[in-house]
Known about the structure:
- The chain has 197 residues and is mostly helical.
- It is 51% helix and 9% strand.
- It folds into 2 domains: 38-128, Rossmann fold; 132-196.
- It has helices at residues 15-24, 40-46, 61-69, 99-111, 113-126, 132-149, 151-160, 166-185; strands at residues 6-9, 31-35, 50-52, 73-75, 92-93.
- The strands form 2 sheets. It has a 3-stranded parallel sheet with strand order 3-4-5, with helices on both faces.
Amino acid sequence: MPEALFAIAGHGAERPRLEKLVEEGALSKSVRFMGSRKDVAEILNAADCLVLVSVTEGFPRVVAEAFAAGAPVVCTPAPGTLDIVREGENGLVVPFRDPASVARAILRTLRFPAETAQRRERARRDVRKHDLDTWVRGAERVFDRAIAARGERLAAYLADAALPSPLTLHWRFRMFRLALRLAVLLGRTPVAPDDLT
């Protein structure tokens, strides 16, 4: 598909090497280096496919954003990525460091629109599981389970130690929730969704 256009957003240590490969391969008409962008939602809305070939991930927010925007996803099985992408159901998962598999998955996404539309629809439904309110409710469940599991010991510890009152702890937890929401909005999530289950 020589008409395909690859847009690479962001900066990183690999950019000079990638730019050199594009130049050597005479691919400048097919590859665009976009640099740092603030209009990620618009880019994903325009994309026919998001490709994420990370070796490691925490929680790949860009995948959730692609799901919400309706951009089909091709990704590697990085642990954080597999928390949201299910092979063949809401995305395509390819082996690490296997460019041929990446190319086949991209071509499959572009050449079989009916199949891709089914994955896209599942992805739009699945992304609702990863919204901010779900994360906060998950954090609350973690705290509730921890307190319930150590109820008596925690109560005794609080009674014996010169620690804030339970009311003060409650308000501090509420502040934690607000800080978590702010961190997510700013893209600096301190915890991953898999930590909240």
